[in-house]
Amino acid sequence: MDSKKRSSTKAEGSKERGLVHVWQAGSCSVTPERLPGWGERTVLQAALGVKHGVLLTEDGAVYSFGTLPWRSAPAETCPSSPVLEHALVGQCVVTVAAGSFHSGAVTESGVVYMWGENSAGQCAVANQQWVPEPSAVSIADSETSPSLAVRILQLACGEEHTLALSISREIWAWGTGCQLGLMTTTFPVTKPQKVEHLAGRVVLQVACGAFHSLALVQCPPSQKPVPERCNQCSQLLMTMTDKEDHVIISDSHCCPLGVTLAESQAENQASTAISPSTETRDSQGEVFENTHIQQDLAVANKLNVGNVQTTSGDAVPPQLDIIGTTETSSARNIPSDPDAPAGNEHVQKPSDPSKRENSENGEKPVPSQPLVEEAVPNLHSPPTTSTSALNSLVVSCASAVGVRVAATYEAGALSLKKVMNFYSTAPCEPGAQAGSSSIGPEGLKDSREEQVKQESMQGKKSSSLVDIREEESEGGSRRLSLPGLLSQVSPRLLRKAARVKTRTVVLTPTYSGEADALLPSLRTELGYISRVAAGRDSYLALVDKNIMGYIASLHELAATERRFYSKLSDIKSQILRPLLSLENLGTASTVQLLQEVASRFSKLCYLIGQHGASLSSFLQGVKEASSLVILKHASLFLDSYTEYCTAITHFLVMGGFQLLAKPAIDFLNKNQELLQDLSEVTDENIQLIEILNTLFFLPTRRLHNYAEVLLKLATCFEVTSPEYQKLQDSSSCYECLALHLGRKRKEAEYTLGFWKTFPGKMTDSLRKPERRLLCESSNRALSLQHAGRFSVNWFILFNDALVHAQFSTHHVFPLATIWAEPLSEEAGGVNGLKITTPEEQFTLISSTPQEKTKWLRAISQAVDQALRGASDHPPYGGGSSIQRQEPPISRSAKYTFYKDPRLKDATYDGRWFSGKPHGRGVLKWPDGKMYSGTFRNGLEDGYGEYRIPNKALSKEDHYVGHWKEGKMCGQGVYSYASGEVFEGCFQDNMRHGHGLLRSGKLTSSSPSMFIGQWVMDKKSGYGVFDDITSGEKYMGMWQDDVCQGNGVVVTQFGLYYEGNFHLNKMMGNGVLLSEDDTIYEGEFSDDWTLNGKGTLTMPNGDYIEGYFSGEWGSGIKITGTYFKPSLYESDKDKPKVFRKLGNLAVPADEKWKAVFDECWHQLGCESPGQGEVWKAWENIAVALTANRRQHRDSPEILSRSQTQTLESLEFIPQHVGAFSVEKYDDIKKYLIKACDTPLHPLGRLVETLVAVYRMTYVGVGANRRLLQEAVKEIKSYLKRIFQLVRFLFPELPEEGSTIPLSAPLPTERKSFCTGKSDSRSESPEPGYVVTSSGLLLPVLLPRLYPPLFMLYALENDREEDVYWECVLRLNKQPDIALLGFLGVQRKFWPVTLSILGETKKVLPTTKDACFASAVECLQQISTTFTPSDKLKVIQQTFEEISQGVLASLQEDFLWSMDDLFPVFLYVVLRARIRNLGSEVHLIEDLMDPYLQHGEQGIMFTTLKACYYQIQREKLN
Fold first, then answer.
1. 33-75, pLDDT tens digit by residue?
2. Which residues pair with 57 in a beta bridge?
3. Which helix (H) or strand (E) holds 1479?
4. Which of 237, 788, 1119, 1198 has its CA 20 to 30 A from that of 1285?
């Protein structure tokens, strides 16, 4: 079975294609024979010289055959079979060329190889007669620096010269003769040179005769004045738009009909460009690399140069010039060959005059015959989406041995190469003349008039550049005249390509007398000829065998596509263009729709022309089915047909054909026969408008042809092969589209009929080009429930809306926002349909259950199609054709409200659920308000962004945050147009809860800031207000936006006040401290105004008791008694006043209650500690998931580590069994991760506390009087957070409890007091003590450390200055001197030191070397945050001291405090810790109480004693 499949594939495949057949001129039989010694390898291209030829196979290999005198081995000069050119193996050759006695090849990379005769330098090799093997030709552009290799696209060979066309569209030449076009007289030219005369011109193709050359170049832009209007569609070519302060001029007009050249233009204006709007499509892209330069389908007999009959086609674009140089010779241009007549006799004579007449009158051949038509596309249309460029060959002058075979190639975007064949014989041979014509005696005169006549040839072997002009004769034929010899050097213009008549040439066996009579043909049964080539005495044809009808199907596709293109071109030029040029076509919308039809038609026409071009090129290639354009680019064809059908149905629905009836009646009557012929309508009774309608829908029929041909091709393959499957699928796609477009036409006609009966006023407002009628209730099959007795309710279902019409009014319900559901019988609606829209809900009652089912299905399908947005797209491909039973209840749609007071005229675009906005969406009001976010049941709910324009300030309010039931509720940020910014909690659109308000033009430099609690949009509760302008900060209670209650004020001048406030003013008792420690304690009446009884204490302890009045800082009136206390009393009295600080401030536990309340609410507790633990954990998981989804759209906000942290936090920790240290550590790790992300409720709490703490104690708040308040606040944080943690982890013991150790600690440890090992019997704790500071300070304190430590530094500034001065003074001493001064016993003095592995003796001058490890260890105290970490550093320092002493004593010892203190004092001095006092006080204030009497407590006491001792040391 497998072998059968393989053989079948091979039979269909390449073995039976590109077969080489040859025959000789002058032989007795013209039956072509297979090339001797050549197998069945596929040949893509062949070229013939005088006695040799070259073949290019499908795998890029090159073979030579014939007489090869340049070969070195004698056996290879006349090989019996084609010889492989080994030098080209692996080079991937794409095109070959043959001169008279030399050959050339171009590779895929653009490198040229030459071999053969080189007597004239035609192989670009100097001083060498022959080039036996293909040799690479170096072509470099010396004008570039450095010189770059030139990449070649095409090669042409003459007898003594060679031309190459580069990828940059420049010609390079080498060899001998003026036909090179070079500015030189020195020959041969062996180094390729650029033809400078054509520099700057776009050369499309080059060709060589034996002693002449031709080049096809693109015309330069026209210099004609630009007309004002398009001469086809009459639209303005340039438009001006007047803006406020400038004018915009646009010249981007693109005619929907493209550009074409009329016959009169071609004849009368052949020397000028047709239109300024002609697009130079030849410059688009480079697709010449794989274009094979060879004649297509040309039968070339040996012809005389003086008699060339041209049969050209519509192929040559009018913007192309043909430029040529020639070398004429009477001796070599007109060779005398006695065998020529005999060769020409083998061309068959037509025998039936009647058939000849039919052929002359343009009768088409039988469609079933495999013909190659020359109805070539005239591709003057706007470019399409195709990536190919219009850059294929137009004119080729082939053969270098005196035979003149001219071929005209079509310029097509998909590399079209159409060949118009030239047949002629010598005029002196009547038999040959008769044989050369296919039109009988009547056509003989025209045939003679079309012969090319050579005029005034002067001189022998002289070179000339000729200008061949085109003239018109009475019979419409064209003659080419040679006016004489001109300049020798420069290429000259030969002629402009123009439009002439087309002919059909039969190049394949027809086997019928009628077909044989059409044109001369070879009596052969070879198969399908794809290429022919001619040499002097030999001819060659490449033949494809029609295996299983495969080749015939391809030719059928190509032929029918060209006929189809011809018809489309006729419709465009003879119908569409005249229609558009008519005046008074109707309204602007009608004209616009007709122009859209014309534009889509033109695009389709252009695509079909391209396809025809590609098929002609395809038939010369490997002909693999998978390479067919209608397979590879099926979507392009399907979309183009769909777009055209959409445009024409829009035109039909709007009554376009009826509107054309009046203005186009004269044109239609004059061209009735033409319309009937083009539309293929035979009934003469049909109205002209109906014929026009049929004509415009004609292109959609072509889709059926595509499907049939693809199905035929599929039958040539095995059913299991991928080719079969692809062809079958593509055939189904085209057939489905054809049926789909047929339905679209019927829908349009049905809709048009409806509009004719609909009331006129409503028609104008409801009629739209894209709107189609699905069903309507004019037969009273559907009525409105509870409608009035005399009311009229007409329901019309379109493809985009449901219309409810009542008398002269109507309302349109867009389908995308309609929900239809049947009413159950229990609901009282036997045949009822419930229709839900965003703002209305009504019930429709149908007359019968069948009508109910019909309407429900129609509405559901229409809604589903409206949601898909695919009503105009065919159902080809995949499962998109499957209709859903019901449209989704949740969907995305756009809707404008018209009824709801809050949303009137607002437009919503987003997700819906059962008639209500639900999910993500955007809501915009006409006044500029906009909400973008999530909705729930029609209201804003969830996270969203809201903008409200402020016209007075020309700015907008902007809110980003959470919503609930249409109101701002939860966390959010509100930026006011005035410049204020509020970050905090909202409730019912008001600020409620904890929040931060920045006031000022710029938030970065705002003049005031408030952070605290809000109630119903007003400051109420504890808050901190920082008035940056006045430099004052208030920390206290608020009520109704004013300071009310206890509070503290600090100023930038160092004043500190605490007391009672009323209506923003200090009233009643209070305390006032100045920077110099002057204290007033008494009564106040206004800001800084002392009024009443009080006590004023001086910094030296003196004080005044009495009555005070006046403003602080501007003079105070005092009535009282001055006291000068004794020295013994001052120590008692002074602390008494300071102890009163903080009594009138807000207690720490009363601060930031809103922050903690918010956290409790997030956990689901109405009040602290009151709630279910499982509910709290559930709320945490929901919050984390919601926040992750919220940040999913902006992943840059969350790092990868944060994302992983969130994922781990979503798992609820489970603790089973007795509580242990391990579980305690798990809780600690969880808290660290939770507090690391603000998306966790605990993390948000910590983040907020850090913000308020810094807000309080940074800036003006960095006042040393606030230190104790700051410490109390931290302790309060710890207590309240610990309460939260114990709620989440109920198994966690209470504060001060001891956790038993699950495993005893290692018994061996070194004590700093003894070198012996001991147990933990001296440790004060039998287990692990649970404390809030131990659990939470590691999380909290690092974040609060900077402002807290700054307060400690300010408070201890004076004593630390004394300490630092002593440190600097004592550190000037060497180690030995300092140890002696401090009283360290000599036995503890280090004698030797190990520095970098070397032992050195301690000298009297040694400094900073003794106890260095202990000093370095103690310095780390400044890098830690928590008291426990600092205590560990102190403990490690003591251990380092012990280790150092042990190393010097070499024996165990027991420290006594008298021995230890001086050594530790030395270490503290050498550590040089700048703020040691602040470190000591911070540890003292925040360390765990249970540590004070333990080992670490003793060590800390020692450090504290050292600190105070240093301040009292004096160095004598």
1. 889 888 878 999 999 999 999 999 998 999 999 999 998 888 7
2. 43
3. helix 1476-1486
4. 1198
The predicted structure's pLDDT at residue 373: 35
Helix (H, G, I), strand (E, B) or coil at 1299: strand
* Position with higher pLDDT, 877 vs 960: 960
Name the pLDDT band for 730 (thresholds 50, 70, 90).
very high
pLDDT tier at 1135, thresholds 50, 70, 90: very low
Question: Quick one: tokens of 881?
Answer: 């054709």
Q: Which residues, 6+ apart, have CB-to-CB distance to 1455 below 8 Å?
A: 1312, 1313, 1314, 1442
Query: Which residue is associated with the tokens 């000068």?
Result: 1124
* DSSP structure string for 663-684: TTHHHHHHTHHHHHHHHT---T
Examine the pLDDT at 612 and tell me if it is beyond 60.
yes
Residue 680 has which token pair?
A: 């293929």
Please give the full DSSP string across 100-123, using - where no structure is assigned: SSEEEEEETTS-EEEEEE-TTSTT
Predicted model pTM: 0.64
For 389, residues 6+ apart whose C-beta sits below 8 A from its C-beta are 281, 282, 283, 284, 285, 286, 287, 413
Which pLDDT score is estimated for 760?
A: 72
- List pLDDT tens digits, range 1250-1302: 999 998 998 888 888 888 999 999 999 999 999 999 888 888 888 877 877 76
Q: In what order do the strands lie in the sheet with 841-846?
A: 782-784, 841-846, 832-836, 819-822
What the block records as the tokens of 1412 is: 């260095």
Q: Rounded CA gap, 912 and 1132, in Å?
A: 77
Reported as a single tens digit per residue, the pLDDT across 1059-1104 is 888 888 888 888 988 888 889 888 888 777 888 899 988 888 888 9
Q: How far is CA 426 from CA 306, 346, 441, in A?
A: 8, 15, 18
Contact 455, 432 (CB under 8 A): no
Contact call for residues 117 and 94 (beta carbons, < 8 A): no
Q: pLDDT (tens digit, 9 = 90+) per residue, 122-158?
A: 999 999 999 999 999 999 998 888 888 999 999 999 9
831 and 849 Cβ atoms separated by less than 8 Å: yes
pLDDT value at 1179 more than 90: no
Q: Read off the tokens for 330.
A: 């009477």
**What is the C-alpha to C-alpha distance for residues 942 and 933, in angstroms, rounded to an integer?**
7
Which two three-digit tokens encode residue 922?
């955007």
The residues near 145 (Cβ < 8 Å, ≥ 6 apart) are none
How many residues does this entry show for the chain?
Answer: 1516
Question: What secondary structure letter does DSSP report for 195?
Answer: -
Q: How far apart are CA 684 and CA 693, in angstroms?
A: 15
| Pair 1056, 1080: CB distance under 8 Å | no
DSSP 3-state of 461: coil
d(Cα 1097, Cα 1100) in Å, to the nearest integer? 8
The first and second tokens of residue 757, run together, are 């009966």
Cα→Cα distances 909→888, 891, 924, 1192, Å: 17, 11, 9, 21
End-to-end CA distance of the chain: 116
Residue 1359 identity? E
Buried b (16+ CB within 10 A) or exposed e, 450-465: bbbebeebeeeeebbb
